Amino acid sequence: MTVTTAPVRRTWMVAYALAMIGVAAGWFGPIQILLPEQAARLAGEGGKESLLALVTAVGAAASLVANPLWGALSDRMRSRRPIFLIGTGLGVAGLLVLALADARGPMIAGWVLVQVGLNGPLAALAAMIGDRVPERQRGTVGALFGVAQIIGVVLGTALAVAAGQGAPGYLAVAVAVPALAAALLLISREPVRLPERDRIRWAVVLRPGGQFAWAWLIRFLLNLVNALVLVYLFYYLSDRVGVTGAATWVLVLTVVNVLFAGIAGFAGGVLSDRWERRKIFVGVAAVILAAGTALLALFPVVAVAIVASVLVGVGWGAYVAVDMAVITHVLPDAETRATMLGVANIAGTLPQLLAPVIAAPIVTRLGGYPVLYLVAAAIALLALACLPRLKALS
Q1: What is the SS3 string spanning the chain?
Q2: Which residues belong to any copy of the Major facilitator superfamily (MFS) profile domain (predicted)?
Q3: In a domain, 194, yes or no
């Protein structure tokens, strides 16, 4: 791979984090509150889970295709900026469609457009780490990439609560996404890039012993744990825990989660750069995520849900602290960086497709929320079992 040596400035890091916060707010504000509320309003109490599963699954399927396509297109252009701008515009358009949606069809179409669009800036932001950030800073900047996503979750949720569910919430998120991206576009001066070659070394990437393949699998498993926690959190709190004002409690737990994830993520990124160690953070993350999801399964009360949110936040933060550093370290070469990061991002979007498919039958027929969250704990431990296969990583 081509090695970047010039350090990035703190102002660039801040602008980069703000842009990622905006993208994440556009994604997770709807997932946390707006889509569940809309599904309940359109399908009623008897059909809300099925409609939400359908909408999120179709959207995730679209995302699954869009992310590597955006990455491949980005690798063939002289700048990441057009991908960032076009994708952001499509994502905002999708949020506006959702704001006006009064039936299942427009709701699905709007969410598909959001998923397809926001994968554009996501692909561009991921590729910028390889383009601009030297190896010695990738733990810190990679942690910002992950922590910013977590902050975007709470921002999107807070906007949905503050502006109101339905159209006002979607409009607030639609304004926030481009507003937060503006700083990076204004200060970023990209080096001129030559279009990359068309051939990807798939034999290197996908062979059973390939480091990229194992890093991809670990990312997939831990993202699946996170997706299983989030997908029915609104319904878990209202139906299983029995709280009143489930939307407010989603916000409270999200704030708790984000606070501890942000602390763990940023501290972990800095420490991983200082210690030049990545694997230990992934292992700790998997164990803590398993503990947090097991608590949700076994003790459906508010106090325990708060403790579980702390654990899930710390675990997720420990993982995102090194996630991008791990992935960029095992990329096959620099010439297909955005394309391969798009493939890597499938490990983050595919769980959105699978989470409702896995969760819906468990919640409705196969044991309910206790079984759902125990399955999530088992998946976290499976990721831990895969970690020794990353032999080239410290």
Answers
A1: CCCCCCCCCHHHHHHHHHHHHHHHHHHHHHHHHHHHHHHHHHHCCCCHHHHHHHHHHHHHHHHHHHHHHHHHHHHCCCCCHHHHHHHHHHHHHHHHHHHHCCCHHHHHHHHHHHHHHHHHHHHHHHHHHHHHCCHHHHHHHHHHHHHHHHHHHHHHHHHHHHHCCCHHHHHHHHHHHHHHHHHHHHHCCCCCCCCCCCCCCHHHHHCCCCHHHHHHHHHHHHHHHHHHHHHCHHHHHHHHHCCCCHHHHHHHHHHHHHHHHHHHHHHHHHHHHHHCCCHHHHHHHHHHHHHHHHHHHHCCCHHHHHHHHHHHHHHHHHHHHHHHHHHHHCCCCCCCHHHHHHHHHHHHHHHHHHHHHHHHHHHHHCCHHHHHHHHHHHHHHHHHHHHHHCCCCC
A2: 10-394
A3: no
> Does residue 38 contact residue 167 with C-beta atoms inside 8 Å?
no
The two three-digit tokens of residue 25, written as one number: 């707010």
| pTM of the complete model | 0.71
| Model pLDDT for residues 352-394, shown as the tens digit of each residue | 778 878 888 898 888 889 999 999 999 999 999 998 888 767 7
Q: For residue 153, is it within any domain?
A: yes
Q: What is the pLDDT of residues 234-274, one digit of tens each?
A: 888 888 888 887 878 888 888 888 789 888 888 888 888 78
Q: Which residues 6+ apart lie within 8 Å of 59 measured at CB? A: 108, 111, 112, 114, 115, 352
Quote the tokens at residue 80: 């990441």
Q: In a 10 Å sphere around its CB, with 0-12 CB exposed, 13-18 middle and 19+ buried, how is residue 282 labelled?
A: buried
The CATH code of the domain that includes 44 is 1.20.1250.20
Domain of residue 307 covers 10-185+201-389
Residue 10 burial (CB count, 10 A): 8
The structure tokens listed for 161 are: 């609560």
- The angle that helices 138-163 and 246-275 make with each other, rounded to 10 degrees, is 170
Q: Is-contact 315 289, C-beta < 8 A?
A: yes
Calpha distance 204→215 (Å, rounded): 13
* Distance (Å, whole) CA 225 – CA 373: 9
**Domain count across the chain:** 1
Within a domain: 370? yes
What tokens appear for 97 in the block? Answer: 């469609």
Closest by Cα among 332, 291, 324 to 199? 332
pLDDT at 182 over 70: yes
